[in-house]
Structures are given as structure tokens and as C-alpha cells.
Amino acid sequence: MSLRSPLGKVLGAGSAKEGVHHWWVQRLTSIALVPLTIWFVVSLVSLPSFEHVTVLTWMAHTWTALLLILFVLVATWHSQLGVRVVVEDYVHGGAKTLTLVLITFIHAFVAAAGVFAVLKVAFGAAA
Amino acid sequence: MTVYRMFRYTLFTSFANRLTGLAISIGLLVLVYWLMAVAGGAGSYSRALAILALPIFKVLYAGLLFAFSYHLVAGIRHLIWDTAHGMERHQSQRSAWVVGAVSVLITIAFIYWAFCPGAHQS
User: ipTM, 2 decimals?
Assistant: First the structure.
């Protein structure tokens, strides 16, 4: 049995510097989403129609495709962090872990599907 | 029990920010469904559009526009707080009203733009 106090054991060890990671990424993605979401909503509402050809032409445009991919990735990341905080606050016990696993998987799936869809159209594979 | 008055500007705006955030997360699912449909070709797109153009979805889009506007403005308020500005009680109460008013105005503008007859062909 060590005679060192619990405080003595950790003094000077420093923090892992990971404590603010989620907080920081939530802020970073917030800042990025201000221009990205405004671009997306304005761009979507300004589409002359929602016919397939119109949407394809829009999505296949180089800048649209790039910004759409960024938007999908940053938005799902931000969403994942936000939903995680809500789950951590309101879901308890075993259901909490299960819900966290589920929401992480769903967000990863949504991010991958969004990027895949845009790339497929951008590379001209969607007829 | 009137020890703690339930309605607090900060409490309400924080809760509303979470609710609108969750709503937008649902909106992301719809968005990616739409993107996948576009990538799936003309057939899959027309099938998806038949669902996405239902009246219930139009209500959802209007709701999402509000959720987006609110979350955007409230998020900017949070970012300003992160710089340690505007945290005094009277300031945060005032900014709560500003967030509500500005987000409603943005929503009305967007809904008018998106749904106004004649503004679009479809």
C-alpha cells in the first residue's frame, strides 16, 4: 500500500488535454456551418426547379459538389456532437451507451452516403 | 412551488436551441435521402420526389427553415458568449429577444421566397 495521497499521485502529471476536444470541435464546426448552411439554403431555394436534370446539373458543378461534400461532412459531425450531448443529458444506464453507439453509426452512415451521392453525380455516374 | 420561476429566457433559448438542433438532424436524414435519390438516377429520383413533395413534407420544410434560422442565430449568440461578451443578465435577456425576432424574420423571408406562388416554376 502506497502512502502517497491521491492528490500526490496526480500532481504535476498534467491533463490529457483532451477534455475540451468535443467543445472545441463543436465551435469549429459551428463557425464553418454559418457560411456553409447559408450557401446551401440559398442555393437550394434558388434552384429554378426540382426536376432531375436541373438538380443533376447543379450537383455536378465543381464548386457545388465541393461545398456540398464539405457541408454534409461538417453538418453530420456537428449534429453528432450535438445529439451526443442531448443523449448524455437525458438518457441513462445501459440505454445511454446503446443510444450513443446507434447515433454514432447513423451519423457515420449519413455522412458516407451524402459524400458518396455527391461524388457519384459529380463524376457523371448518375444518369 | 413558486420558489423557482420556471420561465427563464436563458433556459428557454437553450432548450429551443437543442430542439431545433435535433429537428435539423432529422432534416439531414431527409437531405441525404434526397441526395442518394438524385445519384440513383431518374427512376429513383421520381419515386423519392413523389414522397418528398407530399404536403406533410412541405410542412416539415417550413418547420426546418424556422429551426435552421433559429439555430443559426442562437448559435451565433453562443459564439459571441464564447468570447465572454454579452453575458450580463440584462444583455442575455435582450439577446434572447433579438434571437427570437431575427429568426422569425429570416424564416418569413425564406418561406416567402421558397413557397411564394410565382417565385418558382415548380
Answer: 0.85
